[in-house]
Amino acid sequence: MNPESTWEMGVTQFSDLTQEEFAATYLNLRKQDLPEAESLYEDSTFVPNGTVDWSSSSGVSTKVKNQGSCGSCWAFSTISAVEAYFAVVKGQKNLDLSEQQIVDCSKSGNQGCNGGWPYVALAWVAKNGVTTTSAYPYTARDGTCKTSTGAYKIGGAQKVAANQASLQSAIT
User: Fold this and answer.
1) How far out from the chain centre does Cα 25 lie?
2) Gap between the Cα atoms of 137 and 87, Å rounded
3) Range of the domain at 51
4) What is the pTM of this model?
């Protein structure tokens, strides 16, 4: 171990894999064409001052999750955003919502373990709601949609221009 490192290495589920085995199993995202989406906040001039540590100030503290060999990063990022929304805006902390429901049910432009788009999944959650992981457990495989509704619904989502002013304005 490098004595100047700020991290520590240990045995994990990846330790005995070669680089080739790791790549074949976990780096399997298939690139798709990005569907069109309307952008919001493009010409924002309001920029809030200061910084916010979302993990300590708002209770966003969901444990680290593992997507396994399923190309479902899009579902995990969607669920993380929804869990953060409920923690920050609604005060419902430590929710563990179902990535598998998104993988199985959000199909309009998304392809389960073969990739997808978070903003398409967010629109699905806005329309249908999402349930908890305990009610719809993660399997790391494509499956048939078991329930297309859930108690945790958002009002909607908007695409934000990729610049600091627009991002800061959107989170304000």
Assistant:
1) 20
2) 21
3) 39-171
4) 0.70
Give the dihedral sign, CA 75/78/136/156.
Answer: negative
CB 162 within 8 A of CB 37: no
Structurally, the chain folds into a number of domains equal to 1
Q: Is residue 11 part of a domain?
A: no
Q: How confident is the model at residue 60 (pLDDT cuts 50, 70, 90)?
A: low
Is there a domain that residue 14 lies in? no
- Residues composing the chain: 172
Which 3 state secondary structure label does DSSP give 160?
strand
- Cα separation, 2 vs 90, in Å, equals 43
DSSP letter for 71, please: B
Report yes or no on 111 lying in a domain.
Answer: yes
Average pLDDT over residues 9-29: 80
Q: What is the CATH number of the domain that holds 58?
A: 3.90.70.10
CA 26 to chain CA centroid, Å, is: 17
Q: Where are the beta strands (DSSP E) in 20-137?
A: 39-40
Give the whole-angstrom CA distance, residue 98 versus residue 157.
18
Q: What residues pair up with 3 in beta bridges, in sequence order?
A: none
**Residue pair 140/69 in contact by the 8 Å Cβ criterion:** yes
